[in-house]
Design a protein that fits this description.
Elements (H helix, E strand, L loop, with lengths): L1 H31 L5 E9 L7 E10 L4 E8 L8 E10 L9 E11 L2 E8 L5 E8 L6 E10 L3
Keywords: Signal
Length: about 160
């Protein structure tokens, strides 16, 4: 009986300790990755060289269960929480092999965001995609684009 009580107490302590960690991780993951599916590409963008570190990241996801592609342009480090122009565009291409991209559908989200632009989602099973993320650190002169070129991540 004593062994059973000790085991039950240990199991309860472990389960209780795991709950806050799982909740925090889930909340953090939702803020960092607003798309469903698997991360298939992440492209960092940087500020001025002397400032160092990633300023953000273009993230691209694919959900094989639905055939949806999804993208978001994320703020990181010194830009995290700072409102600035940020955009993300996801284009589904007519092509199903890497190379060029003849647009079938384009989804875009743009505005003055503090954390990320997007997510933008489009059905693209069996097709290639093109993804572009942009941000502006200092107005139009400081505009920066990163992307996954046309005809990428086909399938």
């Amino acid at each position: 009986m004593r062994v059973r009580s000790i085991l039950l107490a240990a199991a309860t302590a472990l389960a209780t300790a795991a709950i806050p960690v799982a909740s925090a991780s889930t909340a953090d993951a939702a803020m960092i990755a607003p798309c469903r599916g698997y991360l298939i590409s992440s492209v960092p963008w940087f500020g001025l060289i002397h400032e160092g570190g990633d300023r953000g990241e273009l993230r691209v996801y694919y959900d094989p269960a639905t055939g949806n592609n999804c993208a978001a342009m994320q703020h990181l480090n010194s830009t995290y929480g700072k409102r600035m122009y940020t955009s993300v565009s996801l284009t589904i291409c007519r092509e199903s092999r890497p190379g060029t991209c003849t647009p079938l559908t384009t989804r875009t989200d743009a505005g003055n965001y503090a954390y990320y632009a997007g997510p933008v989602t489009a059905y693209g099973k069996g097709r290639c995609i093109q993804v572009v993320g942009r941000t502006s650190l200092m107005g139009a002169q400081g505009s920066l684009s990163v992307g996954v070129p046309g005809g990428a991540h086909c399938g």
